[in-house]
Amino acid sequence: MSGSSIFSCRNIEFLKTLKFNDEELQTLTSIEQKEVEEDVFIKLSEFYNSQNNYSSAPDLIKHKHAIFLTNTLVRVSRGYEALDASRTWICYWVLHSLSLLDVKISDSVKTACAKFLAKCQNPTGGFGGGPGQISHLAPTYAAVNALIIIGTKEAYKVINREKLLDFLWSLKQENGSFCMHVDGEIDIRGVYCALSVASLTNIISDKLCENTAEWIISCQTYEGGFGGCPDMEAHGGYAFCGLAALIILGKQHLCDIQSLLRWLVHRQMRLEGGFQGRTNKLVDGCYSFWQGAAFAMIHNLLDSPPDNYLFDNKALQEYILICAQHAKGGLIDKPGKHRDEYHTCYVLSGLSIAQHFESDIQILGSPKNEVRTSHPVYNIRTDLLQKGIIYYRGNKLVEEL
Known about the structure:
This protein is mostly helical. The protein is 48% helix and 2% strand. It has 16 helices and three strands. α3 (62-74) runs antiparallel to α4 (87-100). It is globular and about 60 Å long. The model has no long low-confidence stretch (mean pLDDT 93).
């Protein structure tokens, strides 16, 4: 891989002009915003004060992130008991992060992960968060993604596609939406997860997706983003799910793209450079992907796309490299927060989006900071995604309708 190194034109004096102005009317929201800005300002100031030459550019501490992630695959502490229903997610978060860092995973670890995920699959179809747990669309999405990242025939064959299709049908609602699990809640996450796994494993059909695009569009709000359900507040994760699901369906033309883009550009924080998830909320590293990927998708949908990014990719890379790396490895929400696999996955995914703009690669700092390319719709490394798609297309299950 190769790309051009870029440097931010921001400086301390410029950053001062970007600080939040509460107009002498303090609220809990404004107090928290100013506290976070101060933490970020200190981090950025320390960096700018030391930026005298090329070597002072921020580094992605890949080796520490890799150690943090590989240790999680082997053994976790008792503190992870609360995440017992997210064990398939942990597999995905770790495997995807390692793939973006281009860390090679041994055959023995691949086999162990595939066998564990097989234990999470239920005879009736779909995956639970762990062995013996009920099938749920969220861990099903995570498990399918993880198996495609593993990328071996052993992993591909874990997925019982016929039963997976039965599971999806058991969740499908007449209005086009999907329950997260049998008799469970209904929101736009379910639609995205269902369409993602169905399209990846080649079991998608027009009948399965009947009325789904129309239901998704009903979730677009007056702000331009998407809520979890009709009449809910626009949210970065839901906006990603809505747009990505429409693209999978080939129905992106139904979305008010200009309105969505207007909402998105206001989610990048002026001083921090990272993204917030909702209006008047704080910056959070995970939205580097949820919001960043939406920009990447929109760029490809515009009739006359600009030559540059639709957001400030330099500022986002600054936030990630300077403010969202834990000194011991792993990535975080914001300065002062604990590291975890979730934020490590989505912050690295956002870094990938910020670096890879079609054929133009823009890397803040050293070329060694580059991570691999992740697909904005599926959030799987692009080469691994193509390999999995080719495999399942060669093993068709659903007849053309």
